[in-house]
Amino acid sequence: MTESERAGDQSTGDIPTENPATKRKSAFGDPDASLLEQMGGVRGLVYSSIPILTFVPVNSFWGLTVAIWAALGVAVAMLAWSLARRENPQPAISGFIGVAIGVLIAWRTGSAKGYFLYGIITQAVYGGAFALSALARWPLVGVIWGLLDGKGMAWRRNPQARRWYAVATWVWAGLFAIRAVLQYALYLNDEVNWLGAARIAMGWPLALVAFAVTIWAVRRAMVHERESAEVGEVTDG
Known about the structure:
There is one protein chain. The chain is mostly helical. The chain folds into 2 domains: 39-110; 114-232, no CATH class. It is built from 11 helices and no strands. Helix 9 runs antiparallel to helix 10 (192-201). 30% of the residues are buried.
């Protein structure tokens, strides 16, 4: 084999081809991914629900101390299972941290309803942040999608795209606000069982609706961005 042939083999055979699937930063907005997949899959649903389904009935039958250890034990077991299977540990880690904070508050306050206080505060903070970002014309959905998609903040130069990102942001702000207000009302009335039911019922089901609206709004925004880019190319040409 000649030197030129070797060089040709090296130039064509040793350069890895890029897999389009590796370029995808997120399943968010991917038409081939289901809503559940885009929200973290079944594992995310399981990791967020099982500790609550453990804590509430155990507290009813055996008291707060046993419920604390039961919820914490379930969270540790799910995290260990995820690590043992070499899965993406993010849902399990997030679930464990949330459970750990919840049981700490319940233990310090001596009340089972304290388990839900951290979640209520978190929802209120999220709602406020999303609402303020929309009012400031920096809607968080646009910011997040810009980072995931790798396009940065170029969408802010397009008023129509910014409007659709604001729509999605207001949907999430409303969702967080509804969760915080209704669950806080149950918290004030010491309705531990209903708090558990509300946390699950107002969690994934409502989030799926908000996520569906978000995907629709983001795609509408992307259409305007694409049209604006095409107009710019024609003008430059």
